Amino acid sequence: MALKIQGKVMVDAPRDQVWNLLFDADVLKHMANKIPGITVQRLVQVSDDKYEGAASIGVAMIKGKYDGTITVLEKRAPEWVRFRGDGKSGANWTGGEMVLTLTEQDGKTSMAYEGTGNVGGTLASVGQRLIDTVGKHFVQHGTKALAAELAARSRKQ
Amino acid sequence: MATQIIGSTVKRREDPRLITGAGKYTDNIVLPRMTFMAILRSPHAHARIKKIDASRAQKHPGVLAVYTGEDLKKGGVNPIPVGFVLPDMKTAQHHPLAIDEVHYVGDGMAAVVATDRYTAKDALDLIDVEYETLPVVVDGEKATHAGAPQLHPEAPDNVAYYWKVGAGDADKALTEADGVIKQRIINQRLIPTAMEPRVAIADYQPATGDLTLYTTTQNPHLIRLLMALVLGQPEHKLRVVSQDVGGGFGSKIYLYADEVIACFAAKQLARPVKWTEERTENYKATIHGRDHITDAEVGYKKDGTITALKVKTWANQGAYLSNFAPLIPTFFYGPMLQGVYQISNFFVEVWGTYTNTTPVDAYRGAGRPEAAYLIERAVDWVAFELKMDPAEVRRKNMIPPFTSAPYQTSMVYAYDSGNYPATLEKALKNAGYADLRKKQAELRKQGKYMGIGISTYVEITGAAPAQVAASIGAGVALVESALVRVHPTGKVVVYTGSHAHGQGHETTFAQIVADQLGLSVDDVEIVHGDTERTPWGAGTYGSRSQPVGGAAVYVATQRVIEKGKKFATHMLEAAEADVVFEGGKYFVKGTPSKAITFQEVALEAYTAKKVPADVESGLEAISFFNPSNFTFPNGAHIAVVMVDPDTGKVDLTRYICVDDVGKVINPMIVEGQIHGGIVQGLAQALWEGAVYDDDGQLLSGSMMDYALPIASNLPSFETSRTETPSPVNPLGAKGAGEAGTIGSTPAVANAVMDALKPFGVRHIDMPLTSEKVWRAMQKK
Predict the structure, then answer these.
(1) B685 in any annotated domain
(2) Alpha-carbon span B727 to B736, nearest angstrom
(3) A90 touches B: beta carbon within 8 Å
């Protein structure tokens, strides 16, 4: 079942810095670990535009260990990137695409996101009442955490 | 002379153990060295398996074996067969574990056997599968469209079979009709949801080559036969045991892949293998029911006479053909569209189609609910268009009473006996129909919407006359057997090939024997559910146990009485022709005072004190009963609902029914069957429905997501009966297991539509949820 995701967060850092940090596997890992319900065991960059990892994800009572990949499909530095994420566990799968658009505003960066997600297996058959809410919860926490992480790292640089 | 135990209410003898937690369910069985199996099921509705790597799972501590589809194939396991074959049917190979491609969410791909359940489950996550997802189709009609995703190369356009039946000239009759109603009508997919999920335990003894399968089946003999074919295990080295079963409703008829894999693994490992289905598995891996899309055309005259019915139905059969799937939307559906009416022109076409969904097979009613729903809605459409009372349209078209000779219908079947007007008139009287209509009119003036719905159904049960069944495609003779064995003290054990899982055979079959032999019900034990102990039986489904299995018990008992007469003749020193058996005693005609008891005769059968050597000892008899026709129960159901115009919520306020299930052995058990049936049927009208998204994901995959009926939503039912005996079996019984389900769905749907009449609504599809009803009310 599909869900649509859309929103915007402000990152307290200049756009060029945000862009450079955005593709750092360590940033992504820290971000994901700040989302309640997600624990990332591993996240590594395996090529220029591909990341692989493993995470435990719990949607209410449906908990699972997922192996996943993130693939950067297209990008236009420093303002636009489209990527795809896929995860699978024995009884579930998730997948989706997202577009991030960065715009500079008074030395800060507005990060707009838009995408669709899809889930299957037990997640869909038992969790369909929760998917929308949980999906949005993950994305909201994730984007906020990403904004905070990017800002913090940007200050250190 | 019978002592009238038949027809009396005897409390179910099985209940004390079942309601005190002392039932023997398959999951309770513990065997030494038992291992546990879990199945990896596809999370994709349609995908190519690019890679399946079980090496990590195999190394996991506690894992004994991991099997894939290829392993089973190499081990000689055959695909699961279809037991009902139509001409030109395209049967897709159904491997117990998928090979190369998966075709629905829940399709098994690998099995893990481990030392405990949790290890087996954990190891499933260690199996690495790479899928290439393929396009998906879930809709039974869209599957046949050009460009639709294709499931099986052997079935072009996803058509498993095309089947048609007809009578007269439907097109001509439609042209000549005063009016024609065209309506698309959907009979939604249902999920049976037996309270007990399926369980299989396979136990193999390498020393003897014996394989025992304990499983939750409605028909152990059928499972043994099918398993022998699939597994290659010789039938005489295969025993199937099915103890207490917590609900079947048809879903436990079929040979399931899980049972095959458990047997295969038990043989490989030489250890017992147990598999217990989880609820979320049950929703995906156990068959579903119904799922018809139909375009109907009804022709009628101004006076309400129905002249023609033309029907196109797409029957969604799911990803594979389950064992009896092709029977249900064909012979159990098409000819039954005539209902209780004198209609002479029909044309019925059915496309059985493959889709990326759980396989569909017989579920309580099986084909007849789909037929009854359509024709009973159609009668109400005619009433709607002509502004006639629906009861009047029914009277106008109804087949007159026929109790001495069968009624040859327009298509295929001859109804055995029936008095349809009697059930309708009794139901109308019990409901106080005229007063209800007055009350409805008054309430409408106050802006309150009451609906009164009638359905007058007929269905087909008592399968089957073996030769007829064979001629239309059945793979096995649907006869039933009973062995009645009398012990020296006159106590009786009946070994029946039928299986009880809620029907109360332990009570009703004992009533038949006790009634005939003049014994107490407590003197008769009923043994069922074990192929090693009982003679062949095709099983319990389609409301066939009483008219076929019960009839076998009756005939075998009669044979025991006749055999007993040989002993009694010598004991009474009389001529055999003069000896009669009445009230449990043998005596010479005219001298009942000098009678000998059945128990005395039983003792003689094993002591041979008075009989000469040419009278064979022992007292037992077997019967394989093959009925001369199907049986056709009927009834009239009336539902009263209130529909809230603000929310669209439907409240069922009264439910009145009159069912004619032929001669009744135990009124309390019949009433229980009718009650349960009504609930399952009205739940389809109001609440239940399986939901797939376009990706083939089952969104209604748990009890939280699938709306089952609960007691607090329901009024008390006002049940009643008429009794028209069937001439096709000596009991006169017709079968009662599905009647309630078949009658109630259209009654409730008709009631809701009747409430919506002021809003100009002729038809909306089930389930009639608040949202749908409310939206329909906004249109005017």
Answers:
(1) yes
(2) 16
(3) yes
How far apart, in Å, are the Cα atoms of B152 and each of B52, B92, B139, B330?
A: 21, 6, 16, 22
* CB-based contact B699 A90, cutoff 8 Å: no
Closest chain B residue to A66 measured between Cα atoms? B125
Flag whether B663 is in a domain. yes
Q: Do A125 and B702 touch (CB under 8 A)?
A: yes
Q: Which residues lie across from B50 on neighbouring strands?
A: none
Q: Count Cβ neighbours within 10 Å for each residue of B417-455 and write b for 16 or more, e otherwise.
A: bbbbbbbbbbbbebbebeebeeebeeeeeeeebbbbbbb
With a CB-CB cutoff of 8 Å, which residues 25-54 of chain A face chain B?
A: none
User: Considering Cα of A128, then A132, then A134, then A135, what sign does the dihedral take?
Assistant: positive
**Is A126 part of the contact surface with chain B (CB cutoff 8 Å)?**
yes
**Cβ atoms B236, B257 nearer than 8 A:** no
Average model confidence (pLDDT) for chain B?
Answer: 96
Domain end point (choices B569, B601, B625): B625
Contact B649, B713 (CB under 8 A): no
Q: Helix (H, G, I), strand (E, B), or coil: what is residue A118?
A: strand
Cβ contacts of A124 on chain B, cutoff 8 Å = 105, 693, 697-699, 701
Residues B517, B574: one domain?
yes
Does the beta carbon of A119 lie under 8 angstroms from any beta carbon of chain B? yes
B2-37: pLDDT as tens digits: 458 999 999 999 999 999 999 999 999 999 999 999
B44/A125 Cβ within 8 A: no
Query: Does B338 share its domain with B425?
Result: yes
The CA distance from B689 to the nearest CA of chain A, in Å, is 13
CA distance B217 to B530: 11
Q: What is the residue range of A117's domain?
A: 2-156
Regarding whether B718 and B662 lie in a shared domain, the answer is yes
CATH (domain of A150): 3.30.530.20
Binned at pLDDT 50, 70 and 90, residue B1 comes out as very low
Same domain, B208 and B116: yes
Residues of chain B with Cβ-Cβ distance to A119 below 8 Å are 697
On whether residue B10 sits in a domain, the answer given is no
Are B635 and B577 in the same domain? no
Global ipTM: 0.85
Q: Is A67 exposed, middle or buried (0-12, 13-18, 19+ CB in 10 A)?
A: middle
List of chain A residues whose C-beta atoms are within 8 Å of the C-beta of residue B124: 90-91
Average pLDDT over residues B725-754: 97
The reported pLDDT for the residue numbered B780 is 66
Query: B719 — alpha (psi -120 to 50), left (phi > 0) or beta?
Result: beta
Is B646 found in the same domain as B500? no
User: In a 3-state reduction of DSSP, which class is residue B538?
Assistant: coil
* Å between A86 CA and nearest CA of chain B: 12
Q: What is the CATH number of the domain that holds B238?
A: 3.90.1170.50
Most confident residue range from A29-43, A61-75, B360-374:
B360-374
Domain count of chain A?
A: 1
* Most B CBs within 10 Å, among A128, A129, A131, to test the B interface: A128
As for how many domains chain B has, the answer is 3
User: What residues in B contact A128, CB-CB < 8 Å?
Assistant: 699-701, 705
- Do B54 and B95 share a domain, yes or no? yes
CB-based contact (8 Å) between A128 and chain B?
Answer: yes
Residue B5 resides in a domain: no
- pLDDT score for B64: 98
Percent of chain B with pLDDT over 90: 97
Of B197, B222, B250, residue with least CA distance to B26: B197
Range of the domain at B204: 31-134+195-247+252-285
Q: What is the pLDDT of residues B414-459, one digit of tens each?
A: 999 999 999 999 999 999 999 999 999 999 999 999 999 999 999 9
pLDDT tens profile B613-663:
999 999 999 999 999 999 999 999 999 999 999 999 999 999 999 999 999
Q: Last residue of some domain: B267, B285, B303?
A: B285
B121 and B223, same domain (yes or no):
yes
